[in-house]
Specification:
By secondary structure, this protein is of the alpha/beta class. It is built from 17 helices and 17 strands. Strand 16 and strand 17 form a beta hairpin.
Length: 521
Amino acid sequence: AQQFLKPSLAHLHDPFLLRNMDKGVSRLKKAKEHHEKVLVYGDYDVDGVTGTAVLSRFLKKFGVSVKTYIPHRMEEGYGLNYDIIPLAKAEGVTLLITVDCGITSSGEIEELKRQGIDTIVIDHHEPENGQFPDAAIAVIDPKCPGCEYPFRDLAGVGLAAKFVQAVLGEFPEEELDLITLGTIADVVPLLGEKRTIARFGLPFIGSSSKEGLKALLDLARIKDKEMTPYSVGFVLGPRLNAAGRMGSANTSLDLLLCDDLGAAYALAQSLDGYNKERQKLQTLIVEEAMDIIKKDAKILASPVIVVHKEGWHKGVLGIAASKISDKYARPAIVISMVDGLGVGSARSVEGFALHEALAHCSELLEEHGGHKRAAGLRVKNERIIEFSERINIFAEKILKDRDFTPILDIEYELPFAQANWELIHILEDLGPHGEGNPQPLFATRRLMVKSRPQIMGRDTIKFWVTDGRVTLSAVGFGMAGEYEHLKMGQAVDIVYTLGIDDWNKAPQVQLMLKDIRVLTK
């Protein structure tokens, strides 16, 4: 409990507890000694891009000749691909280090070895059927069989930082801004070492000396504001991810490695443009997918929603799957069909491990991989229906009706007088909050709506509530649908988290609504 409430970087585990870390460090030191060329091969999401940036920045300081490569999502797809081999050979590369990918790339790594290129795999994904690429010099992945590292859930960038720590003998605190960005944006449980990294790293983002981050913070209008997981997950992360979704993730990598403020602003503006384009496409695909689902009773009755259409943009399928999963409280898989091949992204609910479900259907799939809650796949068009049936048969054995009912896990029924600054300050020690460590939810019953509710923007509702002694403002993002049910003077029960309203005024306590029940008696 003390370590949770008062974490310290000193609590981080010894990186050499990671299986094969010693082999990876020895191979890198050999590469430095012999002046070898090293290629860092990352993934195109924020985790992979930040991990690539952290590792390449370190290698340059370490005196190693380093190049970077991030595959194009649309043209090359996820993970190592064979096309990198002739490119690496032409550049004289003799050591390739993956970041946030590689655990399922046995064939590619074997071919790299035949071509005289050694590989170190730094990845946090689940190995397929417990197998990992044995042709690699070192596989550094806490999820691999035989690895006894005490914390399994580091992000890819966190493992890259561990590798640097093992080489240097100390954790690279100067890269905490990038490490924290990738860790929070990866949307896996923000607990253990990841929470410790986020706790100390969030202030580093706001005060970063990196020109790329400074430009991005300014363009996103959060410069000089307190950094929170929300800042990363919903403001910075989507912009950095947008390049990989809509074009090339190298734009994001270039930004994070940029040391010229003018060039950084140009790159940040490109990311902002990509993000706006992504938002439009996302809205279109979600609307089309929802329309398909509503018209198909079989899909609506299935424990796993599988929806597909020709030509959907592959870069936003994951976001669409997340929106659908949230709406229907069940796993969702969104597949885009192009030239006879379906490319899909999946998002899940608590209690349903996607990587296990996809492994159960592996003979129907061309490729698959991911986590419990998020995964990707490739499937031939003619097998999509059979795949949908197979994964739903698997899900029926695991998911029960109650798993489809959205549940709010309320911590405490809070007397309204205790919704104050003192409690907000006490709760600060429980943060930072994110996946696996959500903000505590409170409920208060029989409050009165004291003001006329207002619609803010497109889908946000705001009003004031009181218990007769204390009056506070309440805001519900995405809850504009409640407007027609609420009137001044009504009695309501509410569920909320405690927040702060500091928009153009002195900070005030604010209730961030999660649910409203209008009382009729």
